[in-house]
Amino acid sequence: MTLRLAALFPALIVLSCCLSLAAPQETAPEHIQVSGDVMRGVLVKRVAPVYPPLARQARIQGTVILKVVIDKSGNVFEVQLVNGHPMLSPAAMDAVRQWKYQPYLVNGEPVDVETNVQVIFKLEGEPTPAAPDDNAPGTGPGQVPGGIPGSKPLQGVQTGVIGGVIAPATPGDANHPATLRRVRVSANIEAALIQNKVAPQYPPEAREQHIQGTVVLKVNIDKEGNVYHVELISGHPLLAPAAMEGVKQWKYKPFLLNGQAIEVETQVQVNFTLTQQHSESL
Q: Do residues 203 and 266 both lie within one domain?
């Protein structure tokens, strides 16, 4: 006698709310960008450049801007010229290669850093050279960190550690480094800090209509790891409210930047998937 289990049991709808924070196959960048304002606060050894004799004789002065990469131990291991007079640039580069920084910590771990350095050459009795544009990447107050090298400037949750500053920083000076209110952190880094993940309820109307898809949210997380703001980026209108309600209940470990807890902005993906399974038995 042939029995069709499908006649005895309705089709089983298996709900799988796959909550993902980033593509796991993405890899972290080799280094992050941090502005000169903050890096000046962790500079422990500064070697002054030797004023080139020919430049002094020609009364040449100005500011040399360099892009430098600092390793996890605080040593400068790469220096590239961004802007500056050709008679001043070599001396600036030779000096900066000898600078020493404290290790820069992200979430308690030292990381390689890319930053901009300004070296000012001023002749005695002459006015101070004009400062570079404060809007230049990595040179202005509050530009810390400035983004992930090689990542897209928008979205802020590209592969890597930190994707840019959201909230303005407190301006710093030589004795008081700039401080941040909130930074943009990649989703794969935040995934490692999540402590409590609440699965959203699949909306009955969406399930009845066999609607599935991915909801992308922008979330703000406070210093204690609580989600205090959720904003919809994209997603089906029948799925988005449930995703937002679920994510509001998530809990993270505090994110540490250079040893200090800081607010975070990141992105969250909530995937709603319906799978139908039909079983037959003879």
A: yes
Q: Are residues 21 and 37 located together in one domain of the fold?
A: no
User: What are the backbone dihedrals phi and psi of residue 5, each rounded to the nearest 5 degrees, phi first?
Assistant: -60, -25
pLDDT tens for the chain, 282 residues long, are: 444 444 444 444 333 444 444 444 444 445 688 888 788 888 999 999 999 998 888 889 999 999 999 999 999 999 999 998 989 999 999 999 999 999 888 777 888 989 999 999 988 877 766 655 433 433 333 233 333 333 333 222 223 344 444 444 444 444 544 455 777 887 777 878 899 999 999 999 999 999 999 999 999 999 999 999 999 999 999 999 999 999 999 999 988 877 788 888 899 999 999 876 433 332
For residue 235, how many other CB atoms are within 10 A of its CB? 20
pTM, to two decimals: 0.48
Instruction: Give ∠ CA 163-167-168 in degrees, rounded to 5.
Output: 110
Q: ∠ CA 30-150-252 to the nearest 5 degrees?
A: 65
In a domain, 156, yes or no: no
Sign, CA torsion 199/201/207/212 = negative
